[in-house]
Specification:
This protein is of the alpha/beta class. The protein has 10 helices and 14 strands. It folds into 2 domains: about 10-245, Rossmann fold; about 255-293, no CATH class. It is globular. The relative contact order is 0.17. Bound molecules: adenosine-5'-triphosphate (ATP). It comes from Gordonia hydrophobica.
Length: about 290
């Protein structure tokens, strides 16, 4: 499995004279500054400020309805902030307002894997992955000539099911197919909305190990704090649309966070066998039980 390396490919419009060899990238810097997003009079995001460096994986944490998906869609350029800015700094140093970039250009820069991604049900897995090449489309070069599609499918482990119809796929197979589609875009920034929610434990660990090996800047909305602690460099925690904590995962994922944000009593200790925090919960906190009763 070529996690890091490339495979030989065809010339590409973005790499003139060169080989389009792999879906990996050095990532980019992203910055969200004082972003608000309103629906009518309701503020869904309230002054969110967060950032990530090239190659960093940022966990987006927070309870249901706290604004994780909304923030991802703002970061993806799908939703324009009511106020505030989203900036990306490309490897060459160019600093750009994300919402000022044309859709096709933006799709070469970043890719979003949605929580419940849908597509044309008549498509095969390979055809879904080929959709990721649309922003890079070149006249006279059919999609299937792009070896980046093969590599994206290999990384997401869907090569063996390439001829299967999307309609027949399991939840986990769909999730992996959508990852391959996103990788085929050759993004520098990868946005994942609950990417492991359909995966069994083996595939959760495998999936995030693969994501880590790509070296892309990644923002992943996650509910599993143990996975966040194991695979992410940083965490941004949202509660009711506001950032209530951010920083390195070991500083952010604490018993106080479990209590304050999730209403859960627990301990966060160094893992006894590997170098990362280990989250253990006992139950809901008394205050939460009172709220629920
Ligand atoms: N278009 C919209 N119109 C009205 N309310 C919206 C809209 N989009 C999101 N919301 C509300 O904004 C809040 C945040 O939603 P969002 O989906 O971002 O939360 P989340 O943290 O991703 O939740 P979950 O963990 O349950 O997926 C929710 O209360 C949701 O109902």
């Amino acid at each position: 499995m070529a996690f890091y390396g490339g495979i030989e490919g065809t010339a590409d419009s973005d790499h003139p004279g060169g080989l389009m060899t792999c879906v990996t990238s050095s990532g980019l810097t992203w910055r969200v500054d004082n972003v608000h997003w309103n629906v009518g009079a309701t503020e869904i995001l309230r002054g969110v400020t967060a950032s990530g460096e090239p190659g960093e994986i940022t966990a987006l944490l927070g309870p249901n309805g706290s604004g994780k998906t909304t923030l991802l869609s703002v970061l993806a350029g799908v939703r324009r902030p009511t106020s505030g800015t989203v900036t990306v700094i490309e490897p060459g140093g160019a600093q750009r307002d994300l919402h000022g970039i044309r859709t096709r250009e933006r799709a070469k820069l970043l890719a979003l894997v949605e929580q419940h991604a849908q597509t044309e049900t008549v498509l095969t897995v390979r055809q879904v992955v080929e959709l990721g090449r649309i922003p890079h489309r070149q006249r006279g070069v059919p999609f299937h000539l792009h070896s980046v599609i093969d590599e994206a499918m290999e990384i997401a482990e869907v090569s063996a099911i390439s001829d299967r119809s999307w309609a027949t796929l399991s939840g986990g197979e769909r999730q992996r197919t959508q990852l391959a589609r996103a990788l085929a875009q050759q993004p520098s920034l990868l946005l994942l909305d609950e990417p492991t929610n359909h995966l069994d434990l083996h595939h959760q660990i495998d999936f995030l190990t693969r994501i880590r090996s790509l070296g892309l800047s990644t923002v992943a909305a996650l509910h599993d704090l143990e996975l966040a602690a194991a695979f992410c460099d940083r965490a941004v925690v949202l509660d009711r649309g506001e950032v209530v904590a951010s920083g390195s995962v070991d500083k952010v994922i604490t018993p106080d966070l479990l209590d304050r944000v999730y209403g859960v009593d627990g301990d966060v200790e160094p893992h006894p066998r590997v170098d990362r925090p280990h989250v253990r919960w006992t139950g809901l906190t008394t205050s939460t039980r009172k709220v629920l009763i």
